[in-house]
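Intended use. Records such as the CPBP family intramembrane metalloprotease entry shown here are meant for training and evaluating sequence-to-structure methods. They are not intended to support clinical decisions.
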Amino acid sequence: MASLRGIKGNLISYLALMLLCLAGILYGQSLEGRHQFLRVWDIATLAWMGVGIPFLFLQNSAGIPDFWETGITHRKRLLYPLLIGMVFGALDVFVFKILLHPEPYTELPPFLQPFPYSLLLYLAGAFEVEVFYRLIPLTIFLLLGKKLAQARYYSHFLWTAVILTSLREPVEQLPSGDWTIIVYSLFTGFLMNFIQAIVFTRYGFISSLTLRLGHYLLWHILLGAFVEYVELG
């Protein structure tokens, strides 16, 4: 049975993330008209994040740790996922910036946003992806695995959910162009999502969110700051 303390931690963390998203919306609105490719969440997007709240009560029932489950070290929950995410971010910077676009940008491209606004925007983006690609689908799959046939086929549900959720993002964001870039994007996208699904089921939502934030830290935030303040001056 889920503990009240664990559920309370889930709710507080989730609502804190929603408040940070709201702060990002307000900050982004203050920047509108000053940047050509500025991306700003709206209140409707924030409201949709409320869909994830009922699943916060079901983590232990589905065999998933609560956000701040006792017995899981911060190294496993935060440090190692962050470092793994940064490896994927460094790979993307190397391939897409150093190899494919070594020349300076003349303006911030759409996948980069002005710093420090980018901190809030990509936190919100990571939060959204992890709710709809991990929290909701994996909880549903694993809860079914727990309830059907006295959990006899739980491992089947687990690995089916891990593979399907790992395929979603790389297929949805499949690039066009050279086949080597397509293969690279599919492989690294699947591998990162696969690792995220594993750490989600073992260490909880915060671990998968932290891994994605490690990726975004290098690929979106620090690269964006470098382009904005060094290449664009």
